[in-house]
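User: Hi! I have a protein structure encoded as tokens and I'd like to know what sequence might fold into it. I'm fairly new to this, so please keep things simple.
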């Protein structure tokens, strides 16, 4: 049946493993060549998380393009050999670094989970790490620059920093490239229309406010705190939005189409959830998310560009919108008139 399994470091007097006060997320890890892209010995993924068994932070400087020349990893070496697929993959890795690993986004989830389970962790007599190690790993405190602290915050911040400095990610174009799709009912694919093919046209409906970091400001009808975009109708007449599009991709102005029958009332406001749940109901849900790092957003019809906005890095609990003729950070007011931030 093979050699005895290594069940981790020796236990202390309480029957718990002696990890020197540091969290040990499983076994001791294998040789360097046995470790996967997720970190120490775990297959992980492009975010480079702690992966499977292994110790501490995993490899925060794991190259997201590791294995491209390794024929034993055909999914990576063959799929990412395609330039279009590789670019799209790296754009999603950038999203992970900007959004999923952002501490402003993570801290409430880590803190809530720590509070929820800390008492049970303390009572557990069979845990593979000490209670102090658990508390250190889930600490919300800033990490001193001169300390190699093994914690979720340390991993998230260091991994995000490394990925955003990576040459292949740093040089990416904004937004996401659009892959061509083929309809089963038509041999001719619908052409992709870029923003530079559109003609600017005045419209009473425009992008009015957006929020790219929404941790607890407003939940969508499904109870999720997702990015949102607000449109405003400045006219005193109802506007049918059938044939309108929203996009964050200059190469594909028609990225998300408003469902037929969508409308915005006179002098009204309309929220669209940018959560990649394009077909979710109730509510309007676009098939893309907003980037916390900033990007451009477009509102268009078939061949006309009606409204656009460019925003830079966004912060939690602050929206970005039009007020007194200028785009600026605001106090979030979804569904109502914009207000200056406090």
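Assistant: Happy to help. Inverse folding works backwards from shape to sequence: for each of the 342 positions I chose a residue that suits the local structure. Here it is:
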């Amino acid at each position: 049946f093979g050699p005895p399994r290594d069940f981790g470091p020796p236990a202390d007097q309480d029957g718990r493993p002696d990890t020197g006060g540091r969290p040990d997320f499983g076994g001791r890890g294998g040789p360097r060549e046995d470790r996967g892209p997720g970190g120490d010995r775990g297959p992980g993924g492009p975010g480079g998380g702690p992966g499977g068994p292994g110790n501490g932070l995993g490899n925060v400087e794991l190259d997201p393009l590791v294995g491209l020349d390794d024929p034993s990893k055909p999914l990576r070496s063959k799929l990412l050999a395609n330039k279009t697929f590789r670019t799209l993959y790296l754009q999603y890795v950038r999203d992970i670094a900007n959004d999923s690993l952002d501490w402003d986004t993570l801290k409430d989830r880590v803190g809530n989970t720590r509070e929820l389970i800390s008492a049970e962790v303390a009572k557990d007599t069979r845990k593979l790490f000490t209670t102090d190690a658990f508390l250190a790993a889930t600490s919300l405190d800033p990490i001193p620059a001169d300390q190699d602290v093994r914690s979720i915050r340390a991993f998230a911040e260091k991994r995000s920093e490394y990925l955003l400095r990576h040459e292949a990610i740093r040089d990416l174009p904004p937004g996401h490239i659009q892959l061509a799709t083929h309809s089963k009912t038509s041999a001719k694919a619908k052409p992709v229309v870029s923003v530079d093919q559109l003609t600017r046209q005045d419209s009473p409906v425009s992008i009015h406010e957006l929020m790219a970091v929404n941790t607890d400001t407003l939940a969508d009808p499904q109870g999720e705190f997702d990015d949102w975009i607000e449109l405003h109708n400045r006219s005193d007449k109802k506007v049918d939005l059938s044939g309108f599009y929203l996009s964050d991709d200059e190469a594909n102005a028609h990225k998300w189409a408003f469902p037929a029958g969508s409308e915005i009332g006179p002098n009204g406001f309309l929220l669209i959830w940018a959560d990649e749940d394009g077909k979710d109901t109730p509510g309007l849900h676009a098939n893309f998310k907003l980037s916390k790092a900033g990007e451009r957003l477009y509102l268009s019809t078939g061949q006309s560009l009606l409204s656009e906005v460019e925003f830079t890095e966004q912060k939690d609990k602050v929206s970005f919108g039009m007020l007194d003729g200028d785009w600026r950070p605001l106090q979030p007011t979804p569904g109502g008139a914009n207000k200056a931030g406090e």
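A useful reference point when you look it over: Helices lie at 74-79, 83-100, 103-123, 131-137, 152-165, 167-170. Feel free to ask if any position seems puzzling.
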